[in-house]
Description:
Layout: E1 42-45, H1 96-99, E2 106-107, E3 112-116, E4 119-123, E5 128-130, E6 133-135, E7 140-144, E8 148-156, E9 160-167, E10 172-178, E11 183-189, E12 194-196, E13 200-201, E14 208-213, E15 216-228, E16 231-243, H2 250-256, E17 262-272, E18 277-286, E19 292-296, H3 298-303, E20 309-315, E21 322-327, E22 329-335, H4 350-365, H5 375-393, H6 396-413, E23 424-428, E24 433-437, H7 449-466, H8 468-486, E25 503-504, E26 509-510, E27 523-524, H9 527-544, H10 547-568, E28 586-588, E29 591-593, H11 602-607, H12 624-627, H13 638-646, H14 650-659, H15 669-682, E30 695-698, E31 705-708
Antiparallel strand pairs: 1-17, 2-3, 3-4, 4-7, 5-6, 6-29, 8-9, 9-10, 10-11, 11-16, 12-16, 13-14, 14-15, 15-16, 17-18, 18-22, 19-21, 20-21, 23-24, 25-26, 27-28, 28-29, 30-31
Helix pairs in contact: 4-5, 4-15, 5-6, 5-7, 6-7, 7-8, 7-9, 8-9, 9-10, 13-14, 13-15, 14-15
Amino acid sequence: MNRRIRAVTAIAALTALTxxxxxxxxxxxxxxxxxxxxxxxxxxxxxxxxxxxxxxVTGSGSIAEKLPAGSAPAKPPAQAGDxxxxxxxxxxxxxxxxTGPRTQPIWTHPLAVxxxxxxxxxxxxxxxxxxxxxITPFLPALTVGTATGPVTVVSYGAFHVVLRVGLAxxxxxxxxxxxxxxxxxxxxxxxxxxLNGTFRDVGSSPTRARLDIxxxxxxxxxxxLTQTGTTITGSGGQLAVxxxxxxxxxxxxxxxxxxxxxxxxxxxxxxxxxxxxVTQTLTARRAAGGAGAWALLPHHQAGLVAGPAPLAGSYPDxxxxxxxxxxxxxxxxxxxxGLLTAVPKVPLSEAASRAxxxxxxxxxADPPGAGGSYFGLKELGRLSTIxxxxxxxxxxTQRMAALDRLRPQLVDWLTYTGPSDGRYFGYDPTWGGLxxxxxxxxxxxxxxxHFQYGYLVRAAAVLATADPTFARDYGDVxxxxxxxxxGSLAIGPASGLPPFRAFNAYLxxxxxxxxxxxxDGNNQESSSExxxxxxxxxxxxxxxxxxxxxxxxxxxxxLEAATARMYWLGEGLTREAGYAHTTxxxxxxxxxxxxxxxxxxxxxxxxxxxxPLTAGAFYRGPSAARxxxxxxxxxxxxxLFAADLALSDPEAxxxxxxxxxxxxxxxxxxxxxYWVEALAVLGPPQPKTAAPVGSLAFxxxxxxxxxxxxxx
Length: 712
């Protein structure tokens, strides 16, 4: 991304959907729907047909049917192939394959592939770590062809993609890549099945070439394999390339690593309110219907549901060491942190209440925030938070003042009045999505939609709770905005929008770059804005009485919160030796960075994981470990760090506030004060204690009490 340079008790009923694919010549029957394991829940990510078409909006809201110059995407999906005319996912690990030319390195964990000028290159490099970064270099081990021609995307699923790569010498190769698969599959048409590389034979057979490449082990699977110098050639039209894990047992590895390609991937989730868990089921269907090797990241390992057979071996990964299992589907269970759907009413002391009221008045005295798709929508979030704190404090005058300012700004964004309109949403018929005009930080290229639009959706939920006529009049446009960043597969009609966008089912987290034009793959900086985007979906779905939308938000809130705590905040994770920090500022497909897009200060690296401060931000849990990296006198955004400190030590946080702190300008002073004082009364949050949506547990871990928000 380019940014800041400046339940429902159970969601069951599998939804069968038509897959979005163009069929390769003589392809296997790869799109016959198969049900995931019983009670896996609702399909959340899969391919689905969604023709590009201008969404129909009813009510008082409206969108532009055409975007002005400068607000349209800079690149079309030039390599969409037969998917042209469909709304296709952006923000994915393979998005560079849609824009071209050719591709950037595409990272599957544990493989990486690039269609480059010098051929289709396959990498599996080891990590290098420094104090501020963990990097996976792209080091080609094997190459298909001496050069590549045109590249198109043939088909995709929840966590796999099929690319068609033209070969300069004639013919083409279809490449199947799946996240978590240590095997990739090649199907040649009009060209001999051939690979090139510098390797040493370590005991090959006609169906499996066993190779040592720069000290790493690789297998090539095929028929009648022969080796001549630096070339491996097979008969027929197919090869498979497998990266052998360190510590593998040869017999079990070779049973699990097969030439049977993955042809469909889906992700489903089921929410168990009584247990306080969300279970995600990742299903990979193979052409012959069997099981195969899966490489699991640390968050998979932490929540793995019993069933898959362990497979010896491991791979290094920037997120953490990967382990292996053999399975056709993998289930991962995450705790659903109790989610407050409003700022709760907490009995504060008289002095604390006076301080909150004074801060409400100071918040309302601030000049209104200005800006476009990021800063303008953050102002909506600020005003909605002021209104919520005022409601919880019984400050009716301040609540109405905040809502009176919020409503006209929201209505302005949710209506289009013509070419002279300064703020609105327009439909992009090139990719299929909604662009907020004026776009900031590359939002016209689908950067940061979940970060930005989540502020508006939460604000809409706050206003609609206070005034139900707002949802009646403008709800259609807000629904579309939700489906733009969340996806249209499980929460409403396609409406010219892709089946999924920001979220990646295998990684368990979102990505912020629309087109991923980077050698390190896609990335996400603000894990907290991502979590807040799903909080907003829950809240808007609740207001709308839409169980599908609410359930979608619950599932993704739980998954995103779990990976935010682990990969960004470092909870329960062993970082690569040499990396000097607990937290990370940007998590890439291939890299961990102690950095931000806008400045290198440690306060910024952590601070961007702490905003916005909302009722749904208690998922982060104790703050003592991450606060150690800052010391007790942060130079910027002191209000956010005081609020974070309160999760572990509200008395110390109060002392900081009383002494005066620097501010993050879009954060409500009153919310910071209320948060700190509420935690002093309630005790620490216990997000791992089961609590219904709309409530959260606080107090001692061995005797927590459930607090329910108004309307929860």
